[in-house]
TrEMBL record:
InterPro entries: Band7/mec-2_domain, Band_7, Band_7/SPFH_dom_sf, Stomatin_HflK_fam. GO terms for cellular component: membrane; mitochondrion. It comes from Setaria viridis. Residues 268-288 are annotated as: Disordered. Gene3D superfamilies: Band 7 domain. Keywords: Lipoprotein. Transmembrane segments: none annotated. It holds the Pfam family Band_7. It comes from the Eukaryota. This is Band 7 domain-containing protein.
Amino acid sequence: MASLLWRSATPTHQLLLFPRHLAAAGAAPASSRSLSQYHPRDGSPRCDPLGTPVNWGVTIVPERKAFVVERLGKYHRMLTPKIHLLVPGVDRIVFVHSLKEQVIPISDQSVLTRNGVYLQIDGGLFVKIFDPYLASYGVENPISAVIQLAQTTMSELGKMTLDKAFKERDALNENIVRLINEAAMDWGLECICFEIRDISPPHVIKVAMEMEVEAELEKRVQIHESEGEAQAILARSKAKAHGIELISEALAANGGTQCLTCASSTRTKSPSLHDAEHHNLSMSSASN
């Protein structure tokens, strides 16, 4: 009786805005509220943590929300964002769904890869309710169901090797989204995307991977140094060849080609001919 008197004394516009909070606050302290007050149907959690509002005859549905109304225990209609008139005591709002895109963190999952390595994986799931009716009657709790489905689907990583899991993360994300949507469509949910945030191998594997990365970096450094040395040698050779070419052009322009030819022919003479010429020169000097 006291609760009814308190409700009657509450301004009507406050009841329209926050009916469940005001009604529950007048009946009992916040610490003693039970889940059944928030979820009068069966006490299980719903998509909206504030629960379902009380039918006071006039209900305002906020933007990007959907209210499911039952009449005498049977589905009656869907309330879209605007003001609605309901029949108190006959109509009841049993589900409240948010139509916004929701980000759901997926906790660490232990997965065994194809080559026998245990990995710890965590990710984020982006989902959106596109059909409030299926989300209400297709599954008991759609958000909890899609979380369980995502955790199960992450075991797809077991079909890959360790190296492939790191290299083909995008393909793995797309495959998980496809598998989730195949089941979640019947629940009125659509998986927008799934992102694997972290893949953590065991410590021994992580150390081995770091050593492999360091060895690969050292190899690249050595290759770059060798290529630099080869380019330097090639540049010096080109510079020398260009200098020789310039000297040859200068001598040819000054008529020094014949001198070079004679000098080269003299250097290429045989030792006997060179001795004969030297003997003739000696005899002529003696006769004089």
